[in-house]
Fold each of these.
Amino acid sequence: MTPSYGLQGKAAVVTGGTRGIGRAVAGALAAAGARVCVTARDPDAVRRAAAELGGIGLAGSVADPGHPEELTDLVLREFGRLDVLVNNAATNRPYGPLMEAPDTDWREAFAVNVQAPLRLVQCAWHGWMREHGGAVVNVCTEGAEHVGPRVGAYGTTKAALLHLTRQLAGELAPRVRVNSVSPGLVRTEMARFVWEPGEAEAAAELPLGRIGEPEDVARAVLWLASDAAEWVTGADLLVDGGTRVRAASGADGTVLRARLRGVPEV
Ligand SMILES: NC(=O)c1ccc[n+]([C@@H]2O[C@H](COP(=O)([O-])OP(=O)(O)OC[C@H]3O[C@@H](n4cnc5c(N)ncnc54)[C@H](OP(=O)(O)O)[C@@H]3O)[C@@H](O)[C@H]2O)c1
């Protein structure tokens, strides 16, 4: 059973809430009694997820001009409040060496992964949270604090999001708490190219012996968004199956790094 954690009757936005980690987060918030609004680019997926959750949705890219304002207006109109914002939507492109990274893709990565979360926090703050309080959870990545092959653009944007989380936590306290969750390898579409070629080998590199499920991350997001974390802000909660400590278990991450290197450039 999902604990309510004080989320009953609260209103939450989850970007990228139609599949993977975002869908699990939206489900956990709804199960805890929150009213949920999901976003994603695919309108059919948004309609489906909203119906399943008994909530609402808005189709579009978080990077579209005007989307953050439209989303905030919709939630305030339909729910009359906006207590929780989960910045989960992201892109992991462009893959490849940074020397070859096209300008437009680099800009798009920052627009989706960094600028949109800030715009959404600004809209939530001005529309509701400044006066009534709230909680923001940004979904970063375990990889944000180290480097890896071909994921330079993604890693740079997520490192920026991690910094943004801490900066906003200081600026918006005490009314609004801002935290992040940093997942390791999780069974979703975005990471399929890493786990699917051989899940057992990937799992063997993780001290906890398996890859993550979206629900592993959702429980952490739910806790940070809830009153149970009322004295926590500016924190980054690692949910990575022990990836960061694998050196002490004898694993060295060779398999996962090889899979990142094997990704064709797009
Ligand atoms: N899976 C992992 O191993 C892993 C590890 C570390 C961190 N993460 C982070 O976890 C978060 C969720 O990733 P995931 O693995 O669950 O990915 P996913 O399964 O590919 O789901 C991504 C979701 O975001 C939506 N989305 C993508 N781009 C968007 C945009 N520009 N505007 C609005 N919605 C957008 C997608 O729907 P549409 O395609 O319809 O837009 C979908 O609902 C991301 O921040 C990712 O960086 C994942």
Amino acid sequence: MSGTEEKVGRRRDEEEQDWEAAKAFFNNMKSKKPRPPKPSTAITIAVSSRTLFNMVEERKIYEDEGLEKYVAYNQQLEDQPLKHGAAFPFVKALMTVNSRLRELYPDSEELFDIVLMTNNHAQVGVRLINSINHYDLLIERFCMTGGKSPVGYLKAYMTNLYLSKDPEKVKEAIEQGIAAATLFTPGKKTELSESQLRVAFDGDAVLFSDESEIIVKQQGLDQFFEHEKANVNKPLAQGPLKCFLEALGKLQRKFYSKNERMNCPIRTFLVTARSAASSGARVLKTLRSWGLEIDEALFLAGAPKGPLLEKIKPHIFFDDQIFHIEGATETGTIAAHVPYGIGQKYHKGKLIEQPEKQK
Ligand SMILES: [Mg+2]
């Protein structure tokens, strides 16, 4: 063995020892706080600061008096926790599911990971951190984008769902293939389950593409019923929220395989304006073709969704049509608008931008 080879060999041994020492050091660090899971195995939920916390007052100061006053205001109230925002109960419910998963699978990293995605100033970050600690939220990953679009970061974190108050950012995320929605605060407060995460989805243009919605809007209901009958065995294409339902299903199955089906802390609902007899079969067959279960499927045949959602009490309800979002929030449901598909051009069945009539 030459002198150089010997030296290289020795260096490698030292490196190995360094690695081992570093690993042992981290393994010995005792912490009561569970560590965040790896992004590749986690189900990552990115929430903005204005969805997690109620920052209406703060936002008003920012808009009326500018950034400097806004930062000063937040610094002054640094030790005063922010109030709950629309995503708060949802985030708490995600944490409940995580603690059940940790009991059943202590070594698994298939958990929800909550990332705070904010374009806030770093000085406001202290108030956010203080608020997160005040409420004992397990949020370790922060993305402070300094005003830039979060979409690049959402991809890097392999985000499964992004919730924001800013429809432009949500639109951009959806265009990039990320499940995303604009969150709305309900008009009244509803008591929500603390032991079960309850998620409700609209069907067309949310779980499914808007291919059938286009027919309803452009050709009317009779044509739509004909179309759905003719295509009953052809699965609908996937919509922007399908992947999130899939992620929920993956976690549900972890409970089922431990005989916890009846006691599963995740429950999913389909709340669609479709009618069961004339257009319901295609929806159920599509879900079946994807290998996805939904716990409860509710076909409303055009009836308003609000009163039913009031009974379901979901932590979040996704819909592509603003008038369903309005109906949901009026009855106390936390609703998330998915700005996708032909529905964006309509309000209550009427085109929003009518072409100007020629004089
Ligand atoms: Mg829809």
